[in-house]
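Researcher: Let's walk through a ligand-bound prediction step by step. First, I give you the protein sequence. Second, the SMILES string for adenosine-5'-triphosphate. Third, you return the three-dimensional complex as structure tokens. Ready?
Model: Ready.
Researcher: Here are steps one and two:
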Amino acid sequence: LNFLIGVTNGGKTTLTNRIIKALPNCCVIHQDDFFKPQDQIEVGEDGFKQWDVLDSLDMEAMVSTVRAWMENPVKFARSHGVNVTPGSKEPASKDTHILVIEGFLLYNYKPLVELFDIRYYLAVPYEECKRRRSTRNYTVPDPPGLFDGHVWPMYLKHRKEMEDDGVDVGKSLQIRILRDCTLDCKETGSLIEGKFNL
Ligand SMILES: Nc1ncnc2c1ncn2[C@@H]1O[C@H](COP(=O)(O)OP(=O)(O)OP(=O)(O)O)[C@@H](O)[C@H]1O
Ligand SMILES: NC(=O)c1ccc[n+]([C@@H]2O[C@H](CO)[C@@H](O)[C@H]2O)c1
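Model: Step three, the predicted complex:
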């Protein structure tokens, strides 16, 4: 299981799409697909719909989807239209199957944190993040002031919680990932950090 987490507009989806194009037997689960319907999103004291909190996501459904892949990656791949290499369905097949899970709030949900093998963290500075966000069209468009009033403060809060919980990123691996991902880093202008836990 590979986890790709990072700030909104850090380039997670872009990088994920490149990874799945480059690798066979590679499935992806997007956390954004698990947002609850709009009418179930709470409105905070600040007047904003609280999209950037765990309560806005059906995390149990997300974990069930991850478990479905773990139980039978070949079946999961086929039902999601992912090409599998011939022979993968043999019981003794040694083919490697990869799952990429990408999202902005993955490390703050314990049942998911327990499952990861490899994780990467994408970050972009405030100004760049705000600029990119302003070009996006989400299914529910950002009301004026949402970025500074909700999105960025929640990002800082969750990042701090993650660090306080000791979900740190390994330095040696960071170097290795930086080397492996030189191209992507240059292209995304993103900071990429990672940790292997094998
Ligand atoms: N290498 C890059 N250089 C410049 N802009 C980029 C790069 N990669 C992605 N972007 C732009 O940044 C925006 C966010 O990219 P992407 O959708 O991959 O991010 P994300 O982390 O998945 O965001 P979110 O979680 O909010 O959906 C897009 O408009 C995309 O075109
Ligand atoms: N995908 C959606 O339904 C949706 C709706 C409103 C806001 N968002 C934003 O998506 C980002 C994560 O990718 C978060 O910052 C949400 O604000 C998504």
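Researcher: And what stands out?
Model: The beta strands are 2-6, 26-30, 98-103, 118-123, 191-196. The pocket of Nicotinamide riboside (ligand 2) is lined by residues 8, 32, 35, 51-52, 104, 138-140, 151 (CB under 6 Å).
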